[in-house]
Each structure stands twice: as C-alpha cells, then as structure tokens.
Amino acid sequence: MNINIITLISEIGYHGATGAIVAYLIGHRKMANKNVSKLLLFGFLAGLLPDLSLPLTLVTDNATIINNFYLYGHSLFVAPSLSLGLAIVSRSFLPETKLSLLWVTLFLSLLIGHLFMDFLDNGLSLLYPLIDSTDIGLNILTGSDGFIVIPFLILIVLLGSFQQTEKKKWQTTIIIIGLCITTAYIGLRGYSKIQLQNQLDNEFPNGQITLEPTSGNPFTNKQWTYVVDSGYLSISGEASFSNVSELKRELRTHSGPKLLLKEISVGDEKYFISTQSFIDENVEVPFNYDEESLYVYQLNQKTQNLELVDEGTKGEILAKYDPF
C-alpha cells in the first residue's frame, strides 16, 4: 500500500477535519477558550485513528498485520476502546476536563469523522469480526471528493483562526453552514445514485449492476461509472448526476472478453459480431477490420453460452450484415 498525496489530503480533509469539528461542537462550551485548540487537535487525531494501517506501511510490508489493523480499526466494536485510549492521553493535556466527557467527545469524533464518512464512501469493515465484509456502506462519495475535502479544510482553518477570540457563535454558525451545504451535496449524490440505479434496472432487468462514484470534481459530467453483468454480456459506461452513457459491450467467451460490434437476430437465433477487446473506450472504432480480425458467436439457447460459429456461417453473417 503506497501513501500518495491524494490519500493524505483525503485523510486530513475527509476524516481529520470532520473529527475536529465534531469535537468542537460537543466540547468547546465546557472548557476554557485557551484549550479549544487542544480539543481540535485531539478531535482531529480521533478522526484519523482508524487508519493506523496507513503509517504502518512505512515500517512494515507484512500484509497480514496491515490488513488486521485496518479491519479492527474500522470496526464499531473496537471504536470505543480506541477513543478511550486517546481520551486518556488527551486528559494529560486537558486535566480540568472529565475523562467521561473526553471519551464521549472523541468517540463521536471517531464515529462521525471516520466510520460514518467511510460508510458514505466505499464502505468499511463496520461489524468486523462478527461480519467479515469490508464494504458495508452506501458508496456515494469518493475518498478524494473535492466538495467534501475543501469545505472541511476551510472550516478547520476558520476554527483555528478564531479560537483566540470570543466570537464562538460565529464559529458555530460557520460550521452549521458548511455542514448544511455538505449534507445537501451528500443528499444530491444519494438521490442521483437511486435514480441512476432505477434507470439501469429498467434497461437491464436481468443484469447485475455495479454503480461506483468516480470523480473528485462535482462539476464534471462523469460522476459515476457502471458495469452491468448480464451473463454472457458485460456492459460498461459512465454517468452524470442524471444521465447514463454506454461506452462499450463485451462478450464473455471461452477465449476471453471480446468487444461487441453488432448483435443480430435471425429468426430465433442470436449472433454476435465481435473483435479483440483491446480498443480504448475513448477512441472511435475503426472501419477497416478485415474478416480475420472479426469473430462471430452464436448464443446457445439451452445453455446460454456463446459458441464460435464455423467459417461458412461466419462468412454468411459478415456478408449479409455490416458489423459497423
């Protein structure tokens, strides 16, 4: 696992700043103004705490150790213990604050700042080891979504700049505005996913659909990618917030995937003209294929498997139907 700059920015903005904001909202009224910066720091650390596996990669390449740290660090059952440990450490710097308040504050910073945000992202091992699944979540955001990272980074900078003043009501107002905007955006993405899922379900009622967020920029047309697995056929494409755009169709054959060029029905029989699946989806399919580079498959109606036709049938199909 390599730590790149995008991952670090995501961790800081996605988790750390959210954890700091949660800690501020819960605990700032119950401590001296001079200690708010310490509260922000420990809330920030609580938001990052489940990802202990990231810095661990700097000291070991043992995949088992790293994976176990990740799984247990993102478990709801382990979160209270992690936050208690951090609360005990933080009380050395905030001795006038009750341990119980620090524990609750940092637990919620960890829960909302990290586990909840990962739940909105690509999922996590929320119920490990009771349930082994590592992708429990809604999968409506990306870990580097600019709309989420930037507002929270701005919020934490504002909190840091204001923490020496007495204008705490302005700090809270800024946080509430930022949270409202962010919540609206999350709601928009959730609604978008539901609409697109319904659209794909209606178009491919028998297909297994995978819809993934893909863009860190909320202002581009490519917000989602999708794959429809329909037995012998795999369909991939991309989508904006409301519209899908199919990119390519691939046949699943015994000799590997083939790019589908044309589907033909002759009576009750179905034929598929295809070629090697190595064409870039952003490059227009050329029109100068020779017959040797094309494959013609027939769908076996009983087994629903694709079978390569003989050369005679291939010649007849290609002569009668233009694959392009």
UniProtKB/TrEMBL annotation:
The chain crosses the membrane at residues 6-27, 39-57, 69-89, 101-120, 140-162, 174-192. It comes from the Bacteria. This is Metal-dependent hydrolase. GO terms for molecular function: hydrolase activity. Keywords: Hydrolase, Membrane, Transmembrane, Transmembrane helix. Signal peptide: none annotated. The keyword Repeat does not apply.
